[in-house]
Amino acid sequence: MRFELDPPLTAARREEIVTLWLDVSNAGGAVGFVAPVTRAEVGALAHQAFEDVESGDDRLLLGYEGDRLTAMLLLVSRRFHLCEHWRTVKRVMVSPDAQGRGYGAALMREAERVAREIGWDGLFLTVRGGLGIERFYQSLGYKEVGRLPGALRVGPDDNRDEIQMWLSLTS
């Protein structure tokens, strides 16, 4: 897998990202939506993410299999000066047809490498409970540091915990 950090957000690249995000969402991925979701819904959230990357507040990491966008994540600032020494990892996704090849772990290791190179002290992320996703992040060294019971409503009478996880880059 080949990685690109903060590539130019051309119209074609934006479309690639929205398509990946749409495919992951509609396959059940916990990346901001509950399936089914439309291109317009994903596009609206993606547009804001693109603006935040272009402003320099957030960072975008893309993973390619050959020339095909296969994986991505965002490294998001809290936009608060007391928190500038760490970032939140958001929208971690691997194309549904490329899962099971280790791309998710490779993407997360690259994000950790980038964070260390920049000099951040830690990475934070949240996980939707009920899917077992936290085990993947634990295998990469993330520790559960909090849990908000029932904080995510994914459907009528279906509230999930929001699991908060941290990876220290200083120890």
Q: Topology of this structure?
A:
Layout: E1 2-5, H1 11-26, H2 39-54, E2 59-65, E3 68-76, E4 86-94, H3 103-118, E5 122-128, H4 133-139, E6 143-155, E7 158-168
Parallel strand pairs: 4-5
Antiparallel strand pairs: 1-2, 2-3, 3-4, 5-7, 6-7
Helix pairs in contact: 1-2
Q: What do these coordinates show?
A:
The protein has 171 residues and is of the alpha+beta class. The protein has a single domain (2-168), classed as Gcn5-related N-acetyltransferase (GNAT) (Aminopeptidase, 3-Layer(aba) Sandwich), CATH 3.40.630. The chain contains four helices and seven strands; from the N terminus they run βααβββαβαββ. The chain has helices spanning 11-26, 39-54, 103-118, 133-139; strands spanning 2-5, 59-65, 68-76, 86-94, 122-128, 143-155, 158-168. Strands 1-2-3-4-5-7-6 form a seven-stranded mixed sheet, sandwiched between helices. Helix 3 links the parallel strand 4 and strand 5. Helix 1 (11-26) packs across helix 2 (39-54). The model has no long low-confidence stretch (mean pLDDT 96).
